[in-house]
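Worked example 3 (structure in, sequence out).
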């Protein structure tokens, strides 16, 4: 409904009825209040009239007493004279005096106008009390009073005219008062005393016509007021219409004519009251913000690289940004009101379901358009009632990205040179292919002489050789078997369902074919060989990682056997098991160093001739498990050397040995500890400074320490060993060569090494008592060392016969089970020096 009509309806249906209801209610209230006031006034007036009547009775009684008092004391003549005087004065006032005695009722004065009948008189004079009653006679109403005076009673009567009675009431309010029988009276009556059973009342008539007649005037006044109110309402409606309704209608008209798709912002203009102008300003601010957001959205949609299409609830195109026009090959007007499903080839059911269902607000689909792969994101557009009014399609050309992903996936899964699966892909496919097989053979192939090709001919020629090798290997495999490049010059082959014999025959065939592959480069011919390690397993199969580890260890064993060898992993091979468990031992050693779980043992080194005043012993390293078992030293020492952990191990041993010496200063003057230094520790940055720092920190004399280094280590690291030995010798430490005689050219290097002791390798000592060759070798070593001023120590002395032969040769010290077994250093007690035989 129009707002002007609403105001008219409001005035006609609400304001005017409200005014009439108020008038009617006020009239009822006024009438009730007036009626209540009138009743109160009438009741008050009736009481006043009754009081006036009673007062009149009392005055008449008083007159009776005034007359009767002196009368009783007078003589009869005087009484007659007095009666005549009273009559003359009271008759004009309507008063009549009578005396009642045995002779009857006698009137005062002359004449006898006595109006009472004997029966009335008899009823009045009986008794002795004063009597005041009203009497209604044909001649009119009388007021009679009777008093007793001596033996006689005096009766006074006075006529009550209607005018006198009316004067009892208030003038202008009481219209008439009459003394009548109660049955003849009107609405307002005042009972009065009468004779006998007579029921007399004062009938009061009020002048209510004067009271009710003004009630006609307020109706006319109210009607005038009502008309003035309606006129004011009309004027108010005209004012409201001009200041509010008309400006609002103008605003509504401008809002209704506003085009949402207009490209230019047009503000609203409005006159009228301040509220309308404020509404106009707020609306303009809101419209400006909406227009700014619309322009911002337009700039964003036109500026992004993705194609954006806006549809209505039926799926017809409403808007396309420039990238969408370029993608579709046309202008926005060419696709207006066209179904987007038909343009892009989207299933209509898919789009219709998305627009109608109140579920997923965003959905991604892939589609092909004009030979391109597009990623389409469908986003629902909803109104304030969460009803879908359309959809926004964001199209992104992902053709190049998918190609790049495919290429990266291929590069991540395949070797770039040979096209074979790389190690990661090989392991993943191996898990899938090996599942459910009875037998599996994993072959680890390491090319030989391949580095010569890379170094002499370059990596391009090396890549050619790798491709030739890959084709050769692939030609020997059956369908379903797997070949991959798992390293620089390493390949992996997975053979399925073959026996160990069949695997060996196949690998020999593979080696033969590979030997026939020749790479010609720069006028030279190059061939490669291959060492193969095989991990053969039957169901249930071990994990892939374990198979790879076994095949790798077997390949190392094959290379140790010579060129172009094949080796099958055997879990009963002790040496291979050591290599297989080397990583675990390395981790265990690192943990033991970190948690200080290393334990030091000692083995005594006894002087055979008693020439040395010091008690010597070699410090040995052990690791104790949580269950108390001591780990075999050969295993973890070999693992530590393989994984370059020996510098840390040696530092731990040096630190613990010096701390033990620092805790036992009573051993400083006659003990010497032999501590082994690994070849990996010689020349390591910081090792020399660490040893000197530990010496200074513990405050022990350097003569208490002798470092043992192996002969092969000293030879392999000759210059570094020499520099470190010379520097530490200046600090006062002693040095010994361990396992002397097992290497080559030992005497030549012995001449250069600044050592104090030579420990003869135990392989020459074990059979010394029964083998003349070993005897001659040990003797020659001792003779040479004696000439050079170096003392000798024999290792692995396990019997007294060997001890006797060593003394015969002149060896200075002996070490072995015949002298003493290794024991914990913490349990050390000084052992007695062995006396020579």
């Amino acid at each position: 409904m129009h707002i002007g009509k609403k105001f008219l309806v409001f005035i006609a249906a609400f304001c005017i009825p409200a005014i009439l209801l108020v008038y009617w209610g006020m009239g009822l209230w006024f009438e009730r209040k007036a009626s209540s006031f009138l009743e109160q006034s009438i009741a008050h007036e009736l009481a006043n009239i009754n009081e006036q009547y009673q007062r009149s009775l009392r005055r008449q009684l008083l007159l009776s007493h005034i007359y009767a008092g002196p009368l009783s004391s007078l003589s009869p003549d005087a009484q007659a004279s007095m009666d005549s005087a009273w009559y003359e004065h009271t008759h004009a006032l309507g008063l009549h005096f009578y005396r009642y005695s045995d002779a009857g009722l006698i009137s005062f004065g002359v004449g006898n106008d006595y109006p009472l009948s004997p029966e009335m008189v008899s009823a009045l004079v009986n008794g002795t009390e004063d009597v005041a009653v009203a009497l209604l006679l044909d001649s009119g109403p009388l007021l009679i009073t009777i008093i007793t005076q001596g033996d006689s009673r005096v009766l006074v009567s006075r006529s009550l005219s209607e005018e006198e009675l009316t004067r009892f009431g208030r003038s202008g309010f009481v219209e008439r008062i009459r003394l009548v029988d109660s049955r003849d009276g009107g609405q307002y009556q005042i009972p009065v005393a009468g004779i006998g059973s007579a029921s007399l009342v004062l009938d009061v008539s009020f002048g209510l016509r004067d009271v009710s007649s003004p009630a006609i005037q307020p109706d006319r006044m109210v009607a005038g007021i009502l008309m003035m109110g309606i006129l004011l309402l009309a004027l108010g409606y005209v004012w409201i219409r001009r200041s509010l309704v008309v400006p609002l209608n103008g605003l509504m008209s401008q809002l209704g004519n506003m085009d949402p798709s207009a490209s230019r912002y047009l503000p609203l203009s409005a006159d009228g009251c301040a509220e309308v102008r404020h509404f106009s300003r707020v609306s303009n601010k809101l419209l400006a913000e909406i227009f700014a957001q619309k322009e911002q959205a337009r700039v964003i949609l036109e500026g992004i690289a993705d194609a954006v299409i806006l549809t209505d609830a039926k799926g017809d195109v409403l808007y396309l940004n420039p990238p969408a026009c370029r993608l579709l090959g046309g202008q926005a007007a060419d696709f207006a009101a066209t179904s987007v499903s038909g343009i892009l080839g989207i299933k209509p059911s898919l789009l219709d379901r998305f627009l109608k269902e109140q579920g997923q607000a965003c959905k991604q689909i892939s589609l092909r358009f004009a030979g391109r792969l597009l990623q389409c994101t469908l986003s629902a557009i909803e109104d304030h009632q969460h009803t879908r009014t359309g959809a926004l399609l964001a199209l992104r050309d992902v053709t190049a990205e998918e190609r790049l992903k495919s290429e990266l996936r291929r590069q991540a899964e395949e070797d770039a040179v040979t096209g074979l699966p790389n190690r990661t892909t090989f392991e993943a496919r191996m898990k899938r292919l090996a599942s459910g097989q009875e037998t599996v053979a994993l072959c680890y192939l390491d090319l030989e002489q391949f580095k010569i090709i890379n170094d002499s001919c370059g990596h391009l020629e090396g890549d050619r050789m790798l491709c030739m090798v890959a084709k050769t290997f692939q030609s020997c495999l059956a369908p379903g078997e797997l070949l991959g490049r798992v390293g620089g010059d390493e390949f992996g082959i997975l053979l399925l369902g073959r026996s160990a014999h069949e695997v060996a025959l196949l690998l020999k065939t593979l080696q033969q074919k590979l030997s026939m592959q020749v790479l010609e480069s720069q006028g030279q011919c190059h061939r490669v060989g291959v060492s193969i390690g095989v991990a053969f397993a039957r169901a249930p199969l071990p994990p892939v990682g374990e198979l790879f580890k076994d095949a790798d260890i077997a390949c190392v064993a094959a290379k140790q056997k010579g060129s172009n060898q094949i080796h099958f992993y055997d879990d009963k091979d002790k040496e291979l098991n050591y290599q297989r468990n080397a990583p675990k031992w390395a981790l265990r050693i690192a943990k033991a160093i970190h948690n200080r779980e290393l334990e030091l043992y000692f083995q005594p080194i006894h002087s055979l001739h008693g020439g040395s005043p010091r008690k010597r012993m070699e410090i040995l390293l052990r690791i104790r498990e949580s269950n108390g078992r001591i780990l075999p030293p050969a295993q973890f020492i070999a693992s530590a050397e393989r994984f370059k952990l020996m510098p840390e191990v040696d530092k731990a041993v040096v630190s613990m040995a010096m701390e033990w010496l620092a805790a036992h200063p009573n051993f400083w003057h006659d003990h010497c500890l032999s501590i082994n230094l690994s070849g990996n520790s010689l020349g390591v940055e910081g090792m020399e400074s660490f040893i000197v720092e530990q010496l200074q920190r513990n405050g022990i004399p350097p003569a208490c320490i002798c470092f043992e280094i192996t002969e092969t280590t000293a030879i392999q690291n000759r210059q570094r060993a020499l520099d470190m030995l010379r520097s530490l010798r200046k600090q006062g430490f002693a040095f010994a060569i361990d396992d002397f005689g097992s290497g080559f050219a030992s005497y030549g290097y012995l001449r250069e090494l600044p050592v104090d002791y030579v420990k003869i390798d135990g392989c020459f000592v074990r059979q010394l008592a029964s083998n003349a060759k070993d005897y001659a070798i040990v003797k020659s070593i001792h003779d040479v060392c004696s000439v050079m001023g170096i003392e000798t120590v024999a290792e692995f002395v396990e019997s007294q016969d060997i001890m006797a032969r060593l003394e015969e040769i002149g060896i200075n010290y002996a070490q072995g089970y015949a002298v003493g077994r290794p024991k914990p250093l913490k349990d050390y007690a000084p052992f007695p020096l062995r006396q020579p035989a």
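Notes: Confidence is low (pLDDT under 50) at residues 212-217. Residues 304-402 form a domain with the Beta-Lactamase fold (CATH 3.30.450.20).
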